[in-house]
Amino acid sequence: MDNSRLIIVAAALMVMVRVSGAELPTPEQIAKSASAGDAESMMKLGVMYLQGGKAPGDQRKGYEWLRKAADAGNPRAMNMTGVCLANGHGVEPDLAAAMAWYQKSAAAGCAPAMFNLGKMHLQGIGTAQDSKAGAEWLRRAAEAGDLDAQSALGICYMKGWGVLADGKQAAAWFEKAAGRGVAKAQNDLGLMYAQGNGVEQNLPLGLKWLARAAGQGSVTAQYNLAVLHESGQTPDYVSALKWYLIAAAAGDEQAREDAGRLADIMSPANVATARDLAKQFVAAPETLDDQ
After folding, report:
1. Which of 88, 127, 239, 260 has a Cα at 20 to 30 A from 46?
2. Proportion of the chain in helix, strand, coil states, percent, rounded to 5
3. Angle at the Cα of 30 from the Cα atoms of 26 and 36, rounded to 5 degrees
4. Residues 158, 164, 166, 172: what is their CA dihedral angle, to the nearest 10 degrees?
5. What is the DSSP string of 86-140?
6. pLDDT along the chain (291 residues), means of 10
7. What backbone phi and psi angles, to 5 degrees, belong to 240?
8. pTM (2 d.p.)
9. Structural domain of residue 93, as residue ranges?
10. What CATH number does the domain containing 63 carry?
11. Are the C-beta atoms of 192 and 184 separated by less than 8 Å?
């Protein structure tokens, strides 16, 4: 199972910001507050151990502090406790226990836990596979503003998983997540418009969304963008080769093969231009707008 949810939440917790000119508590202050029984501090301390721990004992301490915060009623800690149990972070994997914590967290209104429940039901992990229940949990999380859930719900509508297939609904949910910086949703939305899959075909709009995802470093979007530039009604071989080369540099073997094939039929000057453009590329992830 994908464990990126823990990483995303942990990173959000550790960003230092200034409020009225004062920094958030230091790690030492957090540890002191956690030891005094503050549930929020227990959760933050658990995340600190999980993020920075290099020894197995550190991971174990991370889980233990998260579990204390969860037992104290912190909804986000309940979800992260479930993530630890699902993935074996600091504790032996236990999918049934993970499901139980996700359910407690979701009942307390935690959207990431709703997303995790949706994934487990859709994939039949830790529970019987139930696409309808999975899509419903994703809907709850998506309506609560969870970016991953919005993107995943779009896929459900595109594929007909647990809901009736509906291209317009798929595009609407992809656009919510894409507009807030989710590269996968930008890629999926771009392909829908470029191919006219479930929506009226709009190649310029498709290229726009794919370019945003590719600019963030999505290798899938980079490859898709290259294919569209090469195969469009007005092919742009320089742009196509540029994106093939960028995707190839990130390890995409098919892009490497296609770059070689395309370069063989291009002029040396155009190949050189494409190579220069590829060398200048620097991925710039968008700041996720999670409001």
Report:
1. 127
2. 70, 0, 30
3. 145
4. -80
5. HHTSSS---HHHHHHHHHHHHHTT-HHHHHHHHHHHHHTSSS---HHHHHHHHHH
6. 37 31 71 94 93 78 96 97 96 97 97 97 96 98 97 97 97 97 97 95 97 98 98 94 98 98 98 98 82 39
7. -60, -50
8. 0.85
9. 1-108
10. 1.25.40.10
11. no
The pLDDT of residue 21 is 38
The three-state DSSP-derived secondary structure of 166-190 is CHHHHHHHHHHHHCCCCHHHHHHHH
Tell me if 67 sits within 8 A of 89, measured CB to CB.
no
Residue 55: inside a domain, yes or no? yes
* 190 and 207 Cβ atoms separated by less than 8 Å: yes
C-alpha count within 13 angstroms, C-beta hemisphere, residue 259? 24
Is 102 a domain residue? yes
Check: CB of residue 288 under 8 Å from CB of residue 180.
Answer: yes
What does the block give as tokens for 63?
């889980």
User: Per the structure block, which two tokens stand in for 266?
Assistant: 């291009």
Total domains present in the chain: 1
Spatial distance between the Cα atoms of 233 and 89, rounded to a whole number of angstroms: 50
